[in-house]
Amino acid sequence: MNPHLPHGHHGVESSLSVMPFLGTFLLLLLLVLVALYLWHQGKLPLPKLGSHRSPEDEAKQILAERFARGDITSDEFLERSSILNWTPGTDPLPSKPRKNRRF
User: Fold this and answer.
1) Pseudo-torsion of CA 62, 50, 97, 77, nearest 10°?
2) How far apart are CA 93 and CA 87, in angstroms?
3) Residue 17: inside a domain, yes or no?
Protein backbone atom coordinates (compact mmCIF):
# COMPACT_ATOMS: atom_id res chain seq x y z
CA MET A 1 0.00 0.00 0.00
CA ASN A 2 1.30 3.45 -0.88
CA PRO A 3 1.53 5.65 2.24
CA HIS A 4 0.96 8.83 0.17
CA LEU A 5 -2.49 7.79 -1.08
CA PRO A 6 -5.58 7.84 1.14
CA HIS A 7 -7.33 4.56 1.83
CA GLY A 8 -9.82 3.55 -0.85
CA HIS A 9 -8.20 5.55 -3.65
CA HIS A 10 -7.64 2.43 -5.73
CA GLY A 11 -11.33 1.50 -5.45
CA VAL A 12 -12.47 4.91 -6.70
CA GLU A 13 -10.03 4.82 -9.60
CA SER A 14 -11.13 1.35 -10.71
CA SER A 15 -14.82 2.24 -10.48
CA LEU A 16 -14.27 5.37 -12.60
CA SER A 17 -12.63 3.30 -15.32
CA VAL A 18 -15.79 1.14 -15.53
CA MET A 19 -18.15 4.11 -15.92
CA PRO A 20 -17.86 4.53 -19.74
CA PHE A 21 -18.63 0.84 -20.26
CA LEU A 22 -21.53 0.95 -17.83
CA GLY A 23 -22.96 4.02 -19.56
CA THR A 24 -22.67 2.39 -22.99
CA PHE A 25 -24.30 -0.77 -21.69
CA LEU A 26 -27.20 1.17 -20.15
CA LEU A 27 -27.69 3.13 -23.39
CA LEU A 28 -27.80 -0.07 -25.46
CA LEU A 29 -30.20 -1.64 -22.96
CA LEU A 30 -32.46 1.40 -23.20
CA LEU A 31 -32.44 1.24 -27.02
CA VAL A 32 -33.33 -2.45 -26.97
CA LEU A 33 -36.17 -1.87 -24.53
CA VAL A 34 -37.57 1.00 -26.63
CA ALA A 35 -37.35 -1.15 -29.78
CA LEU A 36 -39.14 -4.03 -28.06
CA TYR A 37 -41.86 -1.69 -26.80
CA LEU A 38 -42.41 -0.20 -30.27
CA TRP A 39 -42.44 -3.67 -31.83
CA HIS A 40 -44.98 -4.86 -29.26
CA GLN A 41 -47.19 -1.83 -30.01
CA GLY A 42 -46.99 -2.61 -33.75
CA LYS A 43 -45.16 0.62 -34.56
CA LEU A 44 -41.89 -1.07 -35.45
CA PRO A 45 -42.44 -3.89 -37.91
CA LEU A 46 -39.48 -6.21 -37.93
CA PRO A 47 -38.75 -8.33 -40.99
CA LYS A 48 -39.33 -12.02 -40.70
CA LEU A 49 -36.15 -13.94 -40.22
CA GLY A 50 -35.47 -16.16 -43.18
CA SER A 51 -36.99 -15.88 -46.61
CA HIS A 52 -39.73 -18.50 -46.29
CA ARG A 53 -43.32 -17.50 -46.85
CA SER A 54 -46.45 -19.49 -46.32
CA PRO A 55 -48.09 -21.17 -49.32
CA GLU A 56 -51.08 -18.86 -48.85
CA ASP A 57 -48.87 -15.78 -49.14
CA GLU A 58 -47.31 -17.19 -52.30
CA ALA A 59 -50.76 -17.87 -53.77
CA LYS A 60 -51.91 -14.31 -52.99
CA GLN A 61 -48.81 -12.89 -54.67
CA ILE A 62 -49.30 -15.02 -57.80
CA LEU A 63 -53.00 -14.19 -57.93
CA ALA A 64 -52.31 -10.45 -57.70
CA GLU A 65 -49.63 -10.66 -60.40
CA ARG A 66 -51.93 -12.60 -62.76
CA PHE A 67 -54.71 -10.05 -62.25
CA ALA A 68 -52.29 -7.16 -62.81
CA ARG A 69 -51.11 -8.72 -66.08
CA GLY A 70 -54.70 -9.21 -67.24
CA ASP A 71 -54.48 -13.00 -67.26
CA ILE A 72 -57.68 -13.30 -65.19
CA THR A 73 -60.85 -11.20 -64.94
CA SER A 74 -61.91 -9.27 -61.87
CA ASP A 75 -64.60 -11.88 -61.16
CA GLU A 76 -62.01 -14.68 -61.27
CA PHE A 77 -59.69 -12.62 -59.08
CA LEU A 78 -62.37 -11.99 -56.44
CA GLU A 79 -63.54 -15.62 -56.49
CA ARG A 80 -60.01 -16.99 -56.06
CA SER A 81 -59.10 -14.45 -53.40
CA SER A 82 -62.19 -15.43 -51.39
CA ILE A 83 -61.07 -19.07 -51.55
CA LEU A 84 -57.83 -17.91 -49.91
CA ASN A 85 -59.84 -15.98 -47.27
CA TRP A 86 -58.18 -12.83 -48.59
CA THR A 87 -59.97 -9.52 -48.97
CA PRO A 88 -57.87 -7.49 -51.42
CA GLY A 89 -57.66 -3.85 -50.48
CA THR A 90 -58.13 -4.44 -46.77
CA ASP A 91 -55.61 -7.19 -46.09
CA PRO A 92 -52.11 -6.23 -47.21
CA LEU A 93 -50.49 -8.26 -49.91
CA PRO A 94 -47.41 -10.00 -48.53
CA SER A 95 -44.20 -8.57 -49.90
CA LYS A 96 -41.75 -10.68 -51.79
CA PRO A 97 -38.81 -11.93 -49.75
CA ARG A 98 -35.63 -10.02 -50.41
CA LYS A 99 -32.47 -11.78 -51.35
CA ASN A 100 -29.52 -11.22 -49.08
CA ARG A 101 -27.14 -8.75 -50.64
CA ARG A 102 -23.52 -8.35 -49.72
CA PHE A 103 -21.86 -5.04 -50.19
Assistant:
1) 20
2) 10
3) yes
Query: Is 23 a domain residue?
Result: yes
CA 2 remoteness from chain centre: 55
What is the model's pTM? 0.43
pLDDT tens, N- to C-terminus, the chain (103 residues): 555 555 555 555 666 677 788 889 999 999 999 988 888 887 877 666 566 778 888 899 999 999 999 999 999 999 999 998 888 877 666 665 555 444 4
Domain enclosing residue 36, as ranges: 7-44
Burial of 60 from C-beta contacts in 10 A (0-12 / 13-18 / 19+): buried
Q: 44: alpha, beta or left, given left = phi > 0 and alpha = psi -120 to 50?
A: beta
